[in-house]
Specification:
Elements lengths: L19 E11 L2 E10 L6 E7 H11 L19 H19 L2 H4 L2 H7 L1 H4 L3 H13 L5 E6 L9 E8 L21 E3 L21 E8 L8 H12 L9 E6 L3 E8 L5 H5 L9 H5 L10 H20 L12 E4 L2 E4 L4 H4 L6 H4 L8 H18 L16 H11 L1 H6 L4 H5 L2 H6 L4 H5 L3
Antiparallel strand pairs: 1-2, 2-3, 4-5, 5-7, 6-8, 7-9, 8-9, 10-11
Helix pairs in contact: 10-13, 13-14
């Protein structure tokens, strides 16, 4: 196939959640125009840095690509005359420094591909989309059930995760053929699927999906924390796909290559919990346009916060009881269906990708075990559900305008003192008086219907 002919240079895995910092250290005149020397580094230490040369037009192009977010940024205006005077250049240098600081200090903008490419072109210059298409096609090229459709765009926050429409193929003439071939059907890609609990490894019949259900294929590259050997990941993923719980969204099929994994699951038209909280009109819009500067925000009722929070805890406790880690809880990985929580992306830990809240919990030495990470992330989700906006720092400083029971619960997870002394367990959280006081008494009866 010609589509597989183009080469994708696989660089060493990078933690895309690590903060990038930038300092404009010098200005130079080249062929009648001004260039700015950017010194850039990843993480807290500036010892390992690299340099990038940028002109004002480069800043202007970056600004135009970020306008879809609706966030106002302090880009200095273009000047036609007098732009080579020393005092103007000094003023422009300071103004551009303030601009790039504003971009990189905003977690939504800083995680975007235009911002990453601007300060780190060496790591982000490749075509992640083309790479995703090639691998997704490779994963499904021998599959008899699913057909890859067009891209859904950058609807999520991960640069290396891509969403595609997917449809079912018409049944083949021979009724004796399996819907999905067994795990080692080719030496290039491996397929395994969640079907019946007997672990047969065949895909569920696509015809059993609800009429009108939309399905999405998600391609995700392996991350820097991947520790599972290539020979073992198929069996472990197959076992994970067999997990059934009312608060975990099942996976219809998963396939992997040496570069990453393709997962097919149901797409929920109302979007994720984050879409609900940000009042996103269309969950299929880009991540920048949905969450950069939402036109509205809404908090959930205390009954909803307690009910959904309790269901999340039950799902996490179930995963841990089966020996599986989650580690990727955030409002974008939760969907609500008829007042029933469904956790998404349970495969992320196995793929070694960095967690959404990693920049926060890495600041606390006590938060390193997988359960404490889940507890910490749960605190952030609980805060966002109750307040209607995310906590933008690693600890909560002051909690107001909420019931005393919720305040006590949030402080036990997100206060500076709690993060320093140690966090409660998932079981301890489940028994907290906030859930006993506010959670819906019908939630347990509804679980079997979810």
């Amino acid at each position: 196939m010609a589509v597989f002919a183009s080469r994708y240079e696989r660089k060493l895995p990078i933690d895309d959640t690590q903060a990038l910092s930038c300092e404009i250290t010098a200005v130079q005149e080249v062929a009648g125009h001004t260039e700015y020397l950017l010194r850039v580094w990843r993480g807290a230490s500036n010892k390992n840095y690299w340099t990038v040369l940028r002109r004002y037009n480069d800043f202007d192009r970056l600004d135009k690509s970020l306008r879809v977010s609706g966030i106002e940024l302090p880009l200095p205006r273009k000047r036609i005359f007098g732009n080579m005077r020393p005092e103007f250049i000094a003023e422009r240098k300071q103004a551009l420094q303030e601009y790039i600081n504003a971009v990189l200090m905003n977690p939504i903008l800083a995680s975007s591909l235009p911002a990453k490419r601007f300060v780190d072109p060496e790591s982000y210059s490749q075509s992640f989309h083309d790479h995703a298409v090639q691998n997704a096609m490779l994963c499904l090229r021998n599959d008899t059930t699913w057909s890859l459709g067009g891209s859904m765009g950058a609807i999520g926050w991960r640069l290396r995760k891509h969403y595609f429409k997917v449809t079912t193929k018409p049944p083949e003439k021979s009724s004796n053929k399996q819907l999905v071939k067994s795990g080692s059907q080719t030496h290039q890609s491996k397929h395994f699927a969640a079907g019946s609990s007997n672990g047969s490894g065949h895909s569920i019949d696509a015809g059993t999906l609800d009429p009108g259900s939309e399905v999405v294929a998600e391609w995700l590259e392996y991350g820097p924390d991947k520790f599972i050997d290539e020979k073992e990941i198929g069996g472990i993923m197959k076992s994970l796909m067999g997990l059934q719980h009312p608060h975990i969204e099942p996976v219809l099929l998963a396939a992997h290559t040496e570069n990453g994994c393709l997962v097919i699951r149901k797409f929920h038209k109302h979007g994720t919990l984050k879409d609900v909280l940000c009042m996103a009109a269309n969950p299929k819009n880009t991540f920048l346009s949905k969450y950069g500067n939402p036109k509205g925000r809404t908090a959930l009722s205390m009954k909803q916060v307690a009910t959904y929070g309790k269901q999340i805890l039950e799902a996490l406790i179930f995963l841990h009881s089966k020996g599986y880690a989650y580690g990727h809880l955030h409002s974008g990985n939760i969907v609500i269906v008829d007042d029933c929580v469904k956790l998404l992306d349970i495969e992320n830990f196995l793929l070694g990708v960095p967690a959404f809240y990693r920049p926060f919990f890495m600041q606390h030495s006590k938060i390193h075990a997988i359960e404490t990470i889940d507890v910490y992330c749960f605190g952030h989700v609980l805060f966002e559900m109750a307040m209607g906006y995310p906590l933008q720092e690693s600890v909560v400083r002051q909690i107001t305008e909420c019931p005393e029971a919720l305040k006590c619960l949030l402080e036990s997870i997100l206060s500076k003192e709690a993060c320093k002394a140690g966090l409660p367990t998932l079981e301890q959280l489940l028994g907290h008086r906030f859930f006993l006081q506010y959670a819906s008494t019908e939630s347990r009866r509804r679980r079997c219907q979810c």
